[in-house]
Design a protein that fits this description.
single chain; five-stranded mixed beta sheet; 12 strands; about 10% strand
Amino acid sequence: MAELGSYIGGSNWVLSLSSSTFIVFFFLFLLSKCRKRRARERYRWPPGTRGWPVIGNSFAWLNAVSSSHPSSFVEQQIKRFGRIFSCSLFGKWAIVSADPAFNRFIMQNEGKLFQSSYPKSFRDLVGKNGVITVHGEQQRRLHSIASNMTRQDQLRFHFVNDINTVMLQTLSNFQDGEVVLLQDVCRKVAIHLMVNQLLGVSSQSEVDEMARLFSDFVDGCLSVPVNLPGFTYYRAMKARKDIIHKINDTIERRVQNEAGEAGNGFLGRLLEEENLPNEVIADFIINLLFAGNETTAKTMLFAVYFLTHCPKAMNQLLEEHERLSGNSGHNGSLTWQDYKTMDFTQCVIDETLRLGGIAIWLMRETKEDVTYQDYVIPKGCFVVPFLSAIHLDESFYKESLSFHPWRWLDPETQKKRNWRTSPFYCPFGGGARFCPGAELARLQIALFLHYFTMTYRWTQLKEDQVSFFPSARLVNGFEIRLSRRRNGS
């Protein structure tokens, strides 16, 4: 009985402790709910839902952006709460915007009310001194340098001939009847362009080596950030070190004037015109490689993909390029004047960027409490301008999910077309972080379309679908069989 009494007494003690613990945690839970409610009342958040406990709306978000139409999650929330709504993403409250005016407000106030927000693992990989990750005066300086180096006069005199050369080298050697994955072709073209234009390197062996390193580097940007042997992120960090080593070697050769003219490529002009430490130059080049290579390659791929599924547009594009004076057989190099006559090609590029643009959304964070209309958004809150939700909105673009490049010839749509200032069309972002290489990318894509369509016809071998997460891609790979064009046919 004594043992039984001791057992019962011990059980009562455990029960009492458990009850007390439950009461404490329940009280803390209620206190937390009250604080959050007061915070929401104080800050006047946009309406929204918190989703599941802990994970919030993160799974719904990722599931939506992995589909062929990434705005599905946003569309559902808009129907319930309006174009500006709140939700819980990745453990934090976030404000998501599919409102053109609010998106423009966010981008125009970059560095003032808002700042870009990236995980530490990504910052470590792309570099703390790169234009993507830095803030304030350093960001403005690096952005200005990149913008100056890609002005139209620079494109006309420094880039057109180099792009012609790269296109002829990379697109002329496929055999009649050869089967290729087009994304591999586009990636090869894009990395060759970027290595040539950034480093002034044209040696095929050096380009191939850089392409291998850069492939490992990019894979790490979208991987679990575990920096241990055997993990993708570890290979990416190793690739970063090797890329920096190659950049520093190139810098050393150029300083000693062993690599030709000092002004050849971005790197040569950086050394000639700017006073930047080597580590800043290395991060600057890596950032431009990352930003320019992937986006350009994917847009080339999607342009061909959409054209393949729209024969009418393909035929009109072919007619335009066959009419280019002296270049119907592509044996002569294109000129800047040729590029400026590609009116329908520009419509194809604009429509590709609208429908399959790489900049789907931006991740920003408030630097201070921000008042917008009736809302007060607290400091440290995620703010997500969802750009493609506007690009794919029926309210702004009729038959928005269809590839229809002729829409850009319509006077009403042309009002939205200025991709530098329009709140309705932002394929290159906006504000202080507007993509400085936007015009260069368009030039590269236009010349790629010329040389590819004038050299080959092709047949798609299997059906595919577009996926947008973790990066815009074609799920099965765009596998095509090439046949060389003969006598302009």
